[in-house]
Design brief:
single chain; alpha/beta; Aspartate Aminotransferase, domain 2; Aspartate Aminotransferase, domain 1; three-stranded antiparallel sheet; binds pyridoxal-5'-phosphate
Amino acid sequence: MLPYGKQTIEKDDIEAVVEALQSDWLTTGPLVSTFETTFAQTVGSQHAVSFSSGTAALHAAMHAAGIGAEAKDEVIVPAITFVATSNAVLYQNAKPVFADVNPDSLLIDPEDVARKITANTKAIVAMDYAGQPCDYAALRALADQHNLVLLSDACHSLGGAVGPTQVGSLADFTCFSFHPIKQITSAEGGMVTTNNDLAATTLKEFRNHGITTDHRQRESKQQHQYAMESLGFNYRLTDLQCALGLSQLAKLKRFTRRRNDIARFYRSLLEPISHVNPLKTRTGIEHAHHLFVIRWDQNSTGLSRDYAFEQLRDRGIGVNVHYQPVYQHPYYVNRFGDQTGQCPRAEQAYHEILSLPIFPGMREEDVRRVVGQLQAITQAKPNSLSKAA
Ligand SMILES: Cc1ncc(COP(=O)(O)O)c(C=O)c1O
């Protein structure tokens, strides 16, 4: 099975982790701050604070942004995203309000965001779907006009940019994930970047139980006392993970270039295939190509996306679907009621999208194989079209 995403772990990554294992610090040691400083420099931000996952990073960013300080706080999130984006709002006891997406890119639509702003709205979350940065200029204008915090869920878009500005410096808070299928990995891991000094301190406390110093700082000062000043969590990233993250970060440009080459090759091969339509890329941006998403045309093929999904999987192509609109998940229906019709473009897209395999280790022949199978499944139409319904 050709997977839809896969990490690239090389000899020097392994050596970096082994070296960390042999050091005195397995968890919060010197590599944490080295990883954070290097990461902040890479994305052009003043601060980078590491977390145990992208989800923890999102939770911490919501906390540092003051979400949930008032009982009726609302945060606008895109309908098409991983559930973690919206769950982070719930962790803070605030309400996620879903905005529809642009049908060409599946990025949050600033016009629908504007429609969903109320007196209770506190923040907007931009999620850089598939690795393509959102329309940050339009979202920033809305945030400024309504005095809202702009958060970026950039779990797909490390390595992306808008003009000369890197993802990581486009919002008040930007959250990253280092899960193995992401642009770089630390096994599990996450990061928040911000230019706000006070917020950076809050983020560091939040990941360490709300305690104002870490173990290593106390060791170096020969101190035993510590103060817990707020309610926090254990969301720390270990030195072992930072060793891997640092080693991988040095390869980010190469990985992103490779992903872009694969995406270009897909586009050239898919150009003549009318029933497979890749999402569009906005001009003036650098795409990180975490995913390569196409819309499957059921009308012209008479075959559903789910049929295509099953067929491709049967033929060894590990396609996936990202994502069902969050408010359709049972937990959200049970808690907030049926929100069908809230974001019609997202609902429609969900029935058409397929994520094709893309990862730095993929070869040209793999891309040809995927495209060949996308064509073959329409030529070998099922006898019973019932499966296609
Ligand atoms: C858009 C998005 N947000 C948040 C997350 C959560 O990241 P993690 O798995 O590191 O907790 C992911 C990861 O899958 C994601 O794709």
